Amino acid sequence: MNVIDNALKPYYSSESAIIYNEDCLELLSHIKENSIDMIFADPPYMLSNNGLTCQNGRMVNVNKGKWDASKGFEEDAKFHDTWITACRRALKPEGTIWISGTYHSIYHCGYLLQKNDFHILNDIAWFKPNASPNLSCRFFTASHETLLWARKDKKARHTFNYDEMKNGLFPEDKMKKENTQMRSVWSIPPPKNTEKQFGKHPTQKPVDLLLRIINASTNSGAVIFDPFNGSGTTGVAAALAGGRYYIGAETDAAFCELTVKRLQP
Ligand SMILES: C[S@@+](CC[C@H](N)C(=O)[O-])C[C@H]1O[C@@H](n2cnc3c(N)ncnc32)[C@H](O)[C@@H]1O
After folding, report:
1. What are phi and psi of 151, to 5 degrees?
2. CB 75 within 8 A of CB 139
3. What is the pTM of this model?
4. pLDDT at 37
5. Nearest C-alpha to atom 22 of ligand 1 is from which residue?
């Protein structure tokens, strides 16, 4: 695929996917302007600041990794501004970007999308039917994440596969009624055990979530980029959707390796 120059060495490359063990800003500086059809970004949530949560009935630290620690409100905003600006350059005018996050990051990202002239199309509430209970019992149990979907150019015509979303089968989603319009609340369980057979990522997204996003907002032939590849869920879903080309950037080599294992046919 002719959208990245040859200056960087890929970690992995196949006919339909290429993974770089690089900072996304470095990789983005090698991607051609106006060349990407769709970006899915699951950036650091900035919530790994020594809090506690409950997992399988046990109290555990919330920390996901050093990459997820907050550097303070202003620094976090600068970080999001920088990568969103770089993504804008790489997107085609009719291209769209999805950003996932919790309240720790999503309001920064929503503000910065608008500041960078993106046009917000939807905010999706991804409801997690079996979310961990709240330990303090002093506020509500967090049971959703938000997905922002935005278009680069307000006047361009973006891809939305309306019929597929309305009439497709979504057995994992107890809220989706057959042959009715897809709404903005999606009930999708966490990744299945089979999605973790090669190893786990602490914030791994379910394949069903990414498959829905890819099927809704891209067609065969699309170039999809994920600046925060993690365990490569976007690449796995792109392969399942078929006919798409996937580009991933990930700073942690262990997660690149996990991605390669997941992408093997
Ligand atoms: C929220 S996780 C993504 C999880 C992914 N969606 C999945 O399903 O596995 C964010 C990932 O971005 C990586 N990361 C953090 N900063 C990065 C950067 N500047 N460039 C590339 N990757 C980065 C982290 O190592 C982490 O694996």
Report:
1. -105, 145
2. no
3. 0.95
4. 98
5. 250
